[in-house]
Amino acid sequence: MGVMTSFPGMRGGTVQGYSSRPGEGKGPAVVVIQEWWGVQGQVKAVCDRLALMGFNALAPDLYGGKVIPYHDQAAASAAASSLDFKAAVENAVRGAVVHLKKSASKVGLLGFCMGGAVAVIGAARIPELDTAVSFYGLPPPNVVSGKDVRVPLQGHFASEDGSVTPEKVDAFEKALKAAGKKYEIYRYQAHHGFMNEDRKEVHDPKAAALAWDRTLAWLRRYLGVAL
User: Fold this and answer.
1) Which domain CATH number covers 46?
2) What is the pLDDT along the chain (227 residues), one digit of tens a residue?
3) Residue 84, exposed/middle/buried by CB under 10 A (0-12, 13-18, 19+)?
4) What is the dihedral of CA 98, 99, 105, 109, to 10 degrees?
5) What is the C-alpha to C-alpha distance for residues 145 and 162, in angstroms, rounded to an integer?
6) Beta bridge partners of 29
7) ∠ CA(21), CA(150), CA(98), 5° rounding?
8) CB count, 10 Å around CB of 129?
9) In Å, how far are 17, 59, 78, 149 from 136, measured between CA atoms?
10) Which of 116, 134, 201, 222 sits at 20 to 30 Å (Cα–Cα) from 214?
11) What backbone phi and psi angles, to 5 degrees, belong to 134?
12) CA distance 14 to 44
C-alpha cells in the first residue's frame, strides 16, 4: 500500500521515509518511529494499518536506509547508540510532522522501542505536534521527564522488560501525574516488543490487539476521525 518518499528536513536537505495514505489521501496524520532495527516490514505494516483506518502515516528513516536483521541485537544496539537522538528529533521527526501538517490539521507521533523514546522526546520538543503514543520506550529522565511533556501522551509498557523496567515506568507516570499532564499509561503482562508480529519470540497477540485498540481510540480522540 505504501511507498518510499522524501520530505524536507528541518535543517535542510531531504529525509527518506515510508508513506502510506488512505484512499482519498486526506485525514489526520501520524508519524511512526522505528524500533532500533530500522524501518523494517513491521514498521511499514503499522503505517499501512493506520492508512486503512483513515490516517496519513509517515515513517522517517532515522538510519538512512540501514535495516538490522532481527537476530543481530549487537548491530541494532550499535546503530541506536550511534544515533544522535536530539538531532533526529529536531531534523527528521519534526520535519515529518511539519510535512504532514501541510495537508492535515493535526498530527500525532507513534513510536516503538527506541522510537517510543523518540516519541516522548517529541512530545516535549516538537511544537507542531498534537499528541504522542509510546510503546515500551522512554528517554532518560535527564533528557525528558514527565513534567516536560507538552501534549497528551499515551504509553504502553511490558511487565517483562529488562530495559524499560516497571520501576522506570512508575517513575515516569509519577512525574506526569505530579505535573498535571493529560496521559494514559497501560501495562501488559508481556515482553518488550510485544507488538511486533514479525518477532514470534516476543509477540503477544492478545496484548497487541488490546494496545492497538487503545491506540486508535486515543489517536481519534486527539487527532480526529477521518471522513
Assistant:
1) 3.40.50.1820
2) 788 999 999 998 999 999 999 876 678 999 999 999 999 999 999 999 999 999 999 999 999 999 999 889 999 999 999 898 888 999 999 999 999 999 999 999 999 999 999 999 999 999 999 999 999 999 999 999 999 999 999 999 999 999 999 999 999 999 999 999 999 999 999 999 999 998 999 999 999 999 999 999 999 999 997 65
3) exposed
4) -70
5) 20
6) 56, 107
7) 35
8) 23
9) 22, 18, 19, 17
10) 201
11) -115, 130
12) 20
Domain carrying residue 38: 3-223
Angular region, 107: left φ>0, alpha ψ -120 to 50, beta rest? beta
Report helix, strand or coil for 30: strand
Q: Which three cell numbers stand for residue 81?
A: 547508540
Q: What DSSP element (H or E) covers 217?
A: helix 205-223
The dihedral through the CA atoms of 129, 134, 137, 142 has a sign that is positive
| Residue in 132, 120, 115 with CA at minimum distance from that of residue 36 | 115
Q: Residue 160, class by beta-carbon neighbours within 10 Å (0-12 exposed, 13-18 middle, 19+ buried)?
A: middle
Contact 32, 111 (CB under 8 A): yes
The grid coordinates of residue 204 equal 503477544
Q: How many domains does the chain have?
A: 1
Residue-level pLDDT at 226: 61
Cell of 171: 517513575
